[in-house]
Design a protein that fits this description.
Pathway: Amino-acid biosynthesis; L-threonine biosynthesis; L-threonine from L-aspartate: step 4/5
GO biological process, one term: threonine biosynthetic process
Number of helices: 10
Order of helices and strands: HEEEHEEHHHHEEEEHHHH
CATH superfamily of the largest domain: Aminoglycoside phosphotransferase (APH), C-terminal lobe
EC number: 2.7.1.39
Number of strands: 9
Keywords: Amino-acid biosynthesis, ATP-binding, Kinase, Nucleotide-binding, Threonine biosynthesis, Transferase
Oligomer: single chain
CATH architecture of the largest domain: Alpha-Beta Complex
Radius of gyration: 20 Å
InterPro entries: Aminoglycoside_PTrfase, Homoserine_kinase_II, Kinase-like_dom_sf, Pseudomonas-type_ThrB
Bound molecules: adenosine-5'-triphosphate, L-homoserine
CATH topology of the largest domain: Aminoglycoside 3'-phosphotransferase, Chain: A, domain 2
Helix content: 40-55%
Strand content: 5-15%
Number of domains: 2
């Protein structure tokens, strides 16, 4: 279930009026997703029925939202296949609905794939690189809020729940990433707006060559290589072992580097970035696992999947 906030037809119709997109025909909650309340909303502009996606933000604050929504708007205007948020006459991209910030964005076609192939990986890699280039002139800046500072802050909180040898792994990796962030190799990596959560369930396809990216609500300014590593760690793996699949990996890296060439420095950093990307989601899943159990709300995602991926990447790539 992913409708945490209930709304009425009248309440929504009133909220939609300043967008001037048409009259409300119907709306229905979207079942998947764990962060926000999402609805498909159908409007009639006098000639056509068009369906949009309404998101009510359950956790994100009005201070954090402008970056995500302006990034999506910026990318959509530049032709990157992402949802376009709609503004009212004052240019506001979100306004309160049922006491929480809410936005209306375009609905993209297609569905996610349960079985990524090298062809999917190639189109995702190419589009990710195009997205990185298109984001270079975005004016607004917000760091990846799930970056190194957050890992350091979360380490003690989640360690409390872990057996000693697993807490030791966590401590060791956070320390390795802290040291790596001080190296010239890290400091030379290209930085810009990234999706930072481009998992298989956040990409919709009408065919394997036409991906659209959704769910930008963990986006942030980080190294482009970290964004690519997050993507590789979900798209180019054997899902039971977490091991990298060479054909998927080659397809994604080759397609990405056709648009944004990878440098020798990028290659030197690659192993640590794959480890960083695994660490980021291991920590967030650990946190959600214990927090969600307390709240008894949703089935949490499996943290041991990323513990396994981190161990595998650590055995493959040494600390720099
Ligand atoms: N712009 C869109 N166009 C089409 N479908 C969308 C769009 N936005 C969301 N969806 C649908 O709604 C579902 C849930 O959206 P989303 O993944 O953003 O939820 P969430 O709770 O924010 O995310 P998550 O649990 O992945 O962090 C998606 O899997 C997709 O099916
Ligand atoms: N992609 C994240 C969830 C947040 O979108 C995960 O699989 O842990």
């Amino acid at each position: 279930m992913a409708v945490f906030t209930q709304i009425t037809h009248d309440e929504l119709a009133t909220w939609l009026t300043p967008l001037n997109l048409g009259t409300l025909v119907e709306f229905k909650g979207i079942a998947s997703g764990i962060e926000n309340s999402n609805f498909f909303v159908t409007l009639n502009d006098g000639r056509h029925h068009t369906t949009y996606v309404l998101t009510i933000f359950e956790v994100l604050t009005p201070e954090q939202l402008p970056f995500y929504l302006e990034l999506m708007q910026h990318l959509a205007i530049k032709g990157i296949p992402v949802p376009r948020p709609y503004a009212d006459a004052q240019g506001q991209l979100f306004r309160p609905l049922a006491g929480k910030p809410a936005t209306l964005v375009s609905k993209l076609s297609g569905s996610d794939t349960a079985t990524p192939t090298p062809a999917h990986c190639a189109s995702v890699g190419r589009t990710l690189a195009q997205m990185h280039l298109a984001g270079r002139d975005l004016q607004r800046h917000q760091p990846n809020l799930r970056g190194l500072d957050w890992w350091q802050m979360m380490e003690d909180k989640v360690s409390a729940f872990l057996p000693d040898h697993i807490a030791e792994l966590l401590r060791d990796e956070v320390a390795a990433q802290t040291a790596f962030a001080q190296t010239p190799i890290y400091k030379e990596l290209p930085v810009g707006a990234g999706h930072c959560d481009l998992f298989v369930d956040n990409v919709l396809f009408t065919d394997p060559n036409s991906p659209s990216f959704i769910d930008f609500y963990f986006a942030g300014v980080d190294t482009w290589l970290f964004d690519l590593a997050v993507t590789v760690n979900d798209w180019c793996i054997d899902r039971s072992t977490g091991e990298l699949l060479p054909d998927h990996l080659n397809a994604m890296i080759t397609a990405y580097s056709t648009v944004v060439p990878l440098t020798d420095n990028d290659r030197s950093a690659w192993g640590m970035m794959l480890r960083a990307a695994a660490l980021r989601f291991w920590i967030s899943r650990l946190y959600d696992f214990y927090r969600t159990r307390e709240a008894a709300m949703l089935t949490p995602k499996d943290p041991t999947h990323f513990e396994r991926i981190l161990k595998s990447r650590r055995s493959q790539f040494e600390t720099i």
